[in-house]
Amino acid sequence: EYGFYGTLEMLQEKLPDGFLRCHRSYIVNMKRVKALLSKQNLLQMADSVVVPFSRSYKKILKEYWSNG
User: What is the distance between the alpha carbons of residues 63 and 48, in angstroms, rounded to a whole number?
Assistant: First the structure.
């Protein structure tokens, strides 16, 4: 968790590939995602943290997950 004074869109532009927006409040490093819990709209991270994702990002996340 890091403090940032700007929009998530600005932050996302500065981050390298592999960081995806999954919710209006979250950007995740997809290399750290352990499981995509599609029915619950949750991402299980490698450190056991659970991050929600919104329906609008579901397709993008599934595509990345299946191709990653």
Answer: 22
